[in-house]
Structures are given as C-alpha cells and as structure tokens.
Amino acid sequence: MSEIIIKAESIKKNYDASYALDGIDIEVLSGQILGLIGPNGAGKSTFLQSILGLIKTEGNLEVLGMDPRRDRHQLLKEVCSITDVAVLPKWMTVDQVLQYVDGVHPKFDIKKCLSILSKTDIKRSSKIKILSRGLVVQLHLSIVMAIDAKLLVLDEPTLGLDLIYRKEFYSQLIEDYYDGDRTILISTHQVEEIEGVLSDALFMNQGRVVMYDSIESINKKFLELRPNNDSIEKGRSLQPIHQRIELGREVLLFEDTDEKKLSELGEVRPPFIADLFMAIMDKTKRGTES
Amino acid sequence: MTSIFFAMLRREVQEHKVAFIYAPFIVTIVLCFVIASVYFGITDIQTAEFNFSTEIYDEDYQEGMLQASPEAKARVIRAGLTVLALPVLITVGFGILAYNLSTFADERKDRSLIFWRSLPVSDLTTVISKLLFVILAVPLMILPNIILLQFVAVMSASIYFVSNDIVSFGYLWNSYFITDWFRIIFSLWAQALWTLPIFTWLMFAGTYSRKPVLGAVVPLVATVVLEGIIFKTNSIFEFIIERIGFWSRSESFPKKYEEVRVVDVPDIFLLFSTPEFWIGIIISALLVVGIVYTRSTNNDYTVE
C-alpha cells in the first residue's frame, strides 16, 4: 500500500500581481520518481520550495502529513534536498561538512557517506572551494544519499555540469539510493537525461499543472507515428494532437489512438517526454487561443 | 539538542578561527615579545603620552611600592595586568564587529544559506547558536591569550626585579590572583550581554540588508538625527555609546570605580539588577525575533 507523501490542494502563490502557482492539485505517493517539467517561470522551483517549507503558499499542502511551513524543522528530518548546485559552504573542508551534518541530522549515516565518497575522487581533507563543480555536486549527493529520508527533492541538481557528471549523478541516484519506497521529485531542463529514470511526469506551465500521469500510462496513451511517404495524408486524417518535421520527416503525435491502426501507416513508438511536453504545450496554447 | 549546538558552535569556530584564534594569538605573541624585550633591556617604548620602559621603576616607584599595603600593591599590579589585555580585547572586538555584520550576510552571498536551511536546524536554533558563540565561546577562546600574556608579563618583571636587586622574585606573584582569570571570563560574558543589543542589531542588518554596513549605520544615524530634531534629545546615541563601552564604567552601573580593576562577581549581579541591563536584553530579544523572521522568509540570496 503506497503512502501519500505529498498532498497539494489549490496551492497558490503570487508575487506582486502574477501567480507563480495557480491552483496546484496533486498527490504524490511513496516510491514515485516524479519529474517536474516545464519552461522557465512555470512554477516548478516555487512548488518545490513550498514543499520544503521555504515559502508560504495559499491552499492546503501536506508533506508526510505535516505542514511544511509550520513543521519545517521536523519535516527536514525526513526530507532531503539539493535545490541548487554548488551551495555547500566553500570555506569548509569535506570532513568539516560531514562532521557538521553528522552533528545536526539524526538520520545521517557518516560511515555510509564515507563509503560512498571512497568511490569518488573527493579527498576528505580538501576544501570545498577547490573542488570542481562536478565534485561538489557529487559530494552533496553523497551526503544526501547517506541520509535515511523518505523524500528527496532535486531542483536543477545537475545544472552547469558536464555530460559525464550528469550521467553519473542520475545513475548513482537510481542504483545506489532509490530503493522502491523512497520518493524523488526532480525538476530539470535536461528532460531527455531523466526520462529513463522517471516513474511519473508532471507538466507545468504558468503555475498550473498541464498534465500529471505515470510514464507507463503516458506510453500507452500517446504514440508517435513516423508515417511512410504514402501514408502521410492518411495519418493526418486521424487527427494527431501535434505535428512536427524531424530531419525532413513528418512526425505525428496521437492521443488515445489504436496502435495497430497507426502501425499500418509507418513506424510507431512512444514519444520522448520532451517531445510530448512540447506537443502538450502547443495543444494547450491552441486551446487557450481558440 | 546539545549535539546540535556543539556541532553549530564547532562550525562557527572553524569558520572564524582567523578572527578569534589566530588574530588574538598573534597580538598576544607580539605583546609578549614586546614585554619581554622591554624587561630584558632590548627595547623600550616611550612617547609623549606613553612610557613603557623599565625607567618607570625609579627609586620613587620602588619606595612607594615597598611602603604600600599588600592590598594597594595587589590593586596596582592587577590593574596593570588588566590593561595589558586591552589590545587583545580590542582585536577581538573588531572581530566580533565583523562577525556580527557578516555572519548572516555571507551565507546569502555564497548561497550556502540554501544548504544550511536544507538541514533540520530551525532558524531560531541557528540564531541562538551564533549568539552563544559570541557571548560564551569567544571570551573562552581569548582567555588563554590573556593568561599567557599575564604570565609572560609577571615572569619578565619578576626576573627584571630580582636581577636588579629591586625586590624578591615572589614579590609580584604574591599579588597575582589566579582567580582574576575567572573574574575576567565572567566579566567578558557580562560585557557580551551588556553589548548584546549592538550585536543583534548588526546581525539583523546582515540578515535584511544587501549592504550590511549601510543597513546597520543608516537607520541608526537617521533615528539619532530625527530624535535630535523632533525631541531635542540624544538618548539613542547615548544608549549606543554606553553599550559599546565597558559595562562597569557605564552611567547606569550603581558603583563607580576610580582605578582600572577586574570586577568582582557580585558586581555582575549588581549589573543584572539594573533596569538598563534588562532593557538591553528585551531589545536584543526583539531583534532576535526580527532576525529569525527575516532569515526564514528571505528567499533573495543576494548581498553586495
């Protein structure tokens, strides 16, 4: 039985005249790896900040049954976060930061952290300021992975890292950290790098949830057709929700359409999350305009 | 909770070791060297206002000291040793000024605030730990320097006296009270509580302002000027000056001492009995609430 980790009802947050969050209603269950996908200003970071109790919002928000704003201190014993890259204090040495976390976090296992770090190039005596951006993020992840938390919040955790570190980050996260019970929320612009690890996707735009579904369901519901040259018109007649040209070839995206019928017209496969997101955004925009 | 405070105090010591360990230690070592040099005749320091050389131990001085009562002798020697600690205290004073202004500003500047706030430590605990650091830990950290300085001074003077046939080696040591160390530490703790409104104001400026120095100075100057114009009084300025000075020398302290001396512990209780002390504590408590609130709502991690 999955436990409700996050319950958000009509969450709103306004800055000046505009809404950063405009009525978010979602439930996140234990074991989900949820990707928050949206353009800049969609409200992803604001939503994650509200989950961490960093900002006050309207509506009813419960994280692990607690009010994140009121019970923030208690909540952070169960919730870990990497909300930005390179925020570890630069004046500290690796050992000092580990000692500090060990002193203040009841669920931090320093032996586990040292064991994770022993597989990296990070030296315990090194000052954080001399570590590369990639190593700092690796250190931060090692700390987080050694905390026995129920929820991990990652807001652009790999921003500014090169491809190798980004890949290492996510593979370490899934192979060494995720145990099937923990819940992970990830917000990133590099959607293509995380779509293989997600169990669910939440599309956001202008502070609203545009779509929230499991990857399994998305893969069943949406199909991408690369029609044969002689089937393009036939494909178009099946009313795709989105059309685009990719390397000179027409690509049509369908929602709730029979796979068999589509496979007669060409190559069929589930869409990439990034492509689906663009299509959903386009559809939403057209819907709003009409 | 104890382990949390211990971890947080250790973090403060690690971060500010230059201001509160290295700098006072360097000043102490330099002073020790100067004192020893003067007593061993390597150098002497004489200016129009200041005479720090063995020439002060002339016949009149020797005569006066020999005739003085043991209590009077002890008072003079202890006053001299207390004055010796002043450069160390002034050095640490500048360190505390910089610490109070920067401790909450720096975490915004380098964005480490995001990391600190991702751990299960409340803003109130953080603020209290920083105050405990300046009130309790810093005086303890500088005490070994004062002890070393006094030891070198008494030892050098004793060797000088005995080698110049002035008095016996134990002459100075008889007046040197080890209990003064405890009185010094209690006095410094009391001083930190007396100056707490200034500490918390500076910390508040570092929390709310993008330019902490301006954030600390401008509102105070504006308030002092406005008070002068509107009420024709000067109470805020006087309050600030009083709090920057030694508590035992303030206008509101019931006892008046002529000479420089290490205060007695009952004097500290006397300080606690004054309304002015508690006014300072209440102002500090209000500012702590302000710091906690501002830090907890501050999502703008920028500071210039």
Task: Describe the protein.
The complex is a heterodimer of chains A (290) and B (304). Chain A is of the alpha/beta class. Chain A folds into two domains: 4-206, Rossmann fold, CATH 3.40.50; 218-289, no CATH class. In chain A, 34% of the residues lie in helices and 29% in strands. In chain A, the strands form three sheets. Chain A has a six-stranded mixed sheet, sandwiched between helices. Chain A has a four-stranded antiparallel sheet with strand order 11-12-10-13. In chain A, strands 2-1-4 form a three-stranded antiparallel sheet, covered by helices on one side. In chain A, helix 5 (133-145) packs parallel to helix 6 (163-177). The radius of gyration of chain A is 21 Å and the shape is globular. Chain B has one domain. By secondary structure, chain B is an all-alpha fold. Chain B has helices spanning 2-15, 17-39, 59-67, 70-84, 86-109, 112-116, 123-163, 170-173, 179-194, 196-208, 212-230, 235-244, 265-272, 275-297, and strands at residues 45-46, 51-52. Chain B is built from 14 helices and two strands. In chain B, helix 7 (123-163) runs antiparallel to helix 9 (179-194) and helix 10 (196-208) packs parallel to helix 14 (275-297). In chain B, a hairpin with a 4-residue loop joins strand 1 (45-46) and strand 2 (51-52). Chain B has a two-stranded antiparallel sheet.
Short descriptors:
A: alpha/beta; 2 domains; four-stranded antiparallel β-sheet; 11 helices; B: 304 residues; mainly alpha; 14 helices
Write the layout of secondary structure elements.
The complex is a heterodimer of chains A (290) and B (304).
Chain A: E1 4-15, E2 18-29, E3 33-37, H1 44-51, E4 58-63, H2 72-75, E5 79-82, H3 94-104, H4 110-117, H5 133-145, E6 151-155, H6 163-177, E7 183-187, H7 191-194, E8 200-205, E9 208-214, H8 215-221, E10 222-227, H9 232-237, E11 242-246, E12 249-255, H10 259-263, E13 266-269, H11 273-289
Parallel strand pairs in A: 3-7, 3-8, 5-6, 6-7
Antiparallel strand pairs in A: 1-2, 1-4, 8-9, 10-12, 10-13, 11-12
Helix pairs in contact in A: 4-5, 5-6
Chain B: H1 2-15, H2 17-39, E1 45-46, E2 51-52, H3 59-67, H4 70-84, H5 86-109, H6 112-116, H7 123-163, H8 170-173, H9 179-194, H10 196-208, H11 212-230, H12 235-244, H13 265-272, H14 275-297
Antiparallel strand pairs in B: 1-2
